[in-house]
Predict the structure.
Amino acid sequence: MRKIIWIAHISLDGYVANKAGALDGFESGEDNLDFVAEICKEADTILSGRVTHELLHSFWPEAGDQPGATYAEKKYAGWYNAANKIIATRSPSQPCEGNLSFVDDNLSQYVRKVKSCKGSEIVIFGSPDIGNQLMEGNLIDVYWVFVNPVLFGEGIPLFKSGFCQRRLTLIETRRFANGEIALKYLAEK
């Protein structure tokens, strides 16, 4: 069975974005992107919400071809372009085609079906609404939480309040030059 890997960058106080929804409080780095690209090599599918998809898709399809693109940008862009993309949205803005498809209802049921199909792992980037829905159904297998050295004070939290308690096991950590720390947890089933 395929695994769901949730990758999320958060502030030290637990937010994936500031109050306005901006990610500009997170400092990027070549070593960070290279590391995420290594994690993604295990996956052939991206599951995201419409907003996250639009954010990723506004940059990555051509990023590897830009003058001055770094090794990590080329590596990640190549993976991104080849990956299947499942967009969870209430209002699909385009038809399903190529490696892009939409799901608009019963996300947990759809993901259970996709997990049982042939393929590599499935990655969720950010997308706290989707992550929390799947967490409620105990469908997330691996959590990669990248803790950034910034405090937002308020914003969009990674985890919503009121979810059922989950036990996780820390199996790996990684520190980056920008002060970010990546924590890999396995969900206890």
In short: The chain has six helices and ten strands. The two ends are 14 Å apart (CA to CA).
